[in-house]
């Protein structure tokens, strides 16, 4: 045995440097591999255990929450039974994992209920001290914790800390900015859109869709004037304001939108044409017709798309000029209009979006 | 002297390959952590239900898919995204796929004005839509056979939407796939996103019902297990890094979303290559570089698309043979960009990497084996050298696979069942011995076929079907 060992040592010492290096690396990889195997075993077992524990706690917290909600009465601010649950959850909330699970449970139920029950869950969020942990997150140095904190505060409608939240409106991370924007709109509805005045970065299409979805949940009639945003130097704010003008039918903004037809950004000009069409601003049709050929092809397409809903019999001669336009989209729009108008020359086009009758139908469906 | 030079080149190649894998894995780790952080609190439901979310066309070519076509289409139609349509392009199937679709979805023929921006094979029976409002999102196109690329081009011509998702018809898309894939297009404000690729996971032995993935299992077949590990390595530790470097050269043909305008501007898919999925990405990137437009090819690491992998060595070899030929064709066609600083990352990093470590790797490996055989036959082998080098490369390969398994556990943890960890570990040890020789053989045959057997095109993939209904 000693001989073999000695032979190995001698072999290693006599070997060229490249072989020595390769043996060292092999030993290193072998040790790493063994460590990784043990780690994998530990990791899989930890993940399984964690999942099991989480499920147990989730069930427990869910039943505690339901008990809390059902043990309340109108006479007392907090009943004895509720007090016991609050104390228990307060104690649990000191542990990070348990805190996360309690919040998950509260949110799950809060998303399913409304009115007094939702208010009671929010009260519990305060009583258990979870709000303190939530607001503490705003001071974290890690951006993802700040973002998560803002989201949590928005989900529990915590308005008290909104100054601290607004302070993050121009945060370097877009994920944090996004959460701030959603917090403001969720809690302050249209008033929350005032952040657009301060916004220096671009509001992405993703952000815009999310904000509009939140706004559509409210019946608020106090719609803001979009004029100042339509004049914004931030192009994304202008595009967002155009979407608001379209969704909320802001006819009053038409003069400002007409001005946007000369905006330096092509997307703004295209959206402006579409919105003016949606608002039914007929006077801009002639305005656009006058210099249509000087416009970008995408603007021309947007114009004819808009004309599909805004044509009048007096437009026939004008439209005939474009009936065989080289651009497919323009040609389709014009022929659609002729079909609607029952113009004979275009009668061979039967444009529909869905077949009306079984096999015999020969509808022409547009691809644009 | 010559022997020394050859040996030095082999050694340098191996060492640089190992280093490149380590660097890519490190970049992937950083990027994956960042991705997980950024997406841990995203609410996809709002995009899902928003009527102003952008419209997407799912284009799925089908050729002789009669076995599963009805179920596959049903699965595609059950996506939760609000604004999308499904375009099934029946690419001259010789079976009764079309008849089955007509019957199952109450289809009727309609006259459809097609914007033929990309030349394709003519329509056969024409375009069909459903009379049943429940299937209003479905469009079926029956055309003459022209291959997958031609079918996808027909879909591009027909799609009325700004974005197109090109997928294999037999793929299972998870419900949130479209909103996750569309996110990079909508949230990027400083550059134009031209395409986004997703992760492909292997669904063999998984439980799928009504187009939903119910249970993830590990198949018994070693060849499929090997592919699972291989896909995990490629998607979790490779493409994530290339995405960070904005150097992705390939988006899997099984699932990718494109900006339709850019795809059409470059002329759509190339019908003359068998690697159309890689070729279109390289061409789109090249186009953007030449236009000097700031752009990005995004990558989503979430397991959103599950597909059936070959479970016989014959089909497996045929698939890898095609991949090899596709890579050679694409790299040859776009050789102008290689080592060309006008193409930035694409020309100086992505292309050279693919050329050396994807295109040439099997050639170098086969040459190495032949050289080894020559040394062996002439009794020139220094066994002390050979043993340590083989051991070193084997240990590295296994360690890398185990790191991949750990990454999967730490991120998506899809293989939860007890015992699967051990099975995956065994696969990591066996794969280099059992699967790799076939991969090498397929790559070598791919090279041979490319240069000496031009007639060979796509191989046949026999589907067993994933549905467990």
Keywords, please?
heterodimer, A: 368 residues, mainly alpha, two-stranded parallel sheet, 19 helices, 2 strands, flat, disordered C terminus, B: 469 residues, alpha/beta, Spore Coat Polysaccharide Biosynthesis Protein SpsA, Chain A, 2 domains, ten-stranded mixed beta sheet, two-stranded antiparallel sheet, 12 strands, 52% helix
Summarize the structure.
The complex is a heterodimer of chains A (368) and B (469). Chain A is built from 19 helices and two strands.
Question: What does the model show?
Answer:
Chain A: The chain crosses the membrane at residues 17-40. Chain A: Keywords: Membrane, Transmembrane, Transmembrane helix. Chain A: InterPro entries: ARM-like, ARM-type_fold. The complex is a heterodimer of chains A (368) and B (469). With 368 residues, chain A is mainly α. Chain A has helices at residues 2-14, 17-70, 80-92, 96-110, 115-127, 130-137, 143-155, 162-166, 174-188, 195-198, 205-215, 227-230, 235-247, 254-259, 266-279, 283-290, 297-307, 316-320, 328-341; strands at 351-352, 364-366. Chain A has a domain at 161-221. Chain A starts with a helix and ends with a strand. The model of chain A is unreliable at 346-368 (pLDDT under 50). By secondary structure, chain B is of the alpha/beta class. Chain B has two domains: 1-41 and 192-469, no CATH class; 52-170, Spore Coat Polysaccharide Biosynthesis Protein SpsA, Chain A, CATH 3.90.550.10. Helices cover 52% and strands 17% of the residues of chain B. In chain B, helix 1 packs across helix 7 (222-244), helix 9 (276-291) runs parallel beside helix 10 and helix 13 (383-411) packs antiparallel against helix 14. The N and C termini of chain B lie far apart (65 Å). The model of chain B has no long low-confidence stretch (mean pLDDT 92). The interface between A and B is large, with 61 and 59 residues. Strand 2 of chain A pairs parallel with strand 3 (107-113) of chain B.
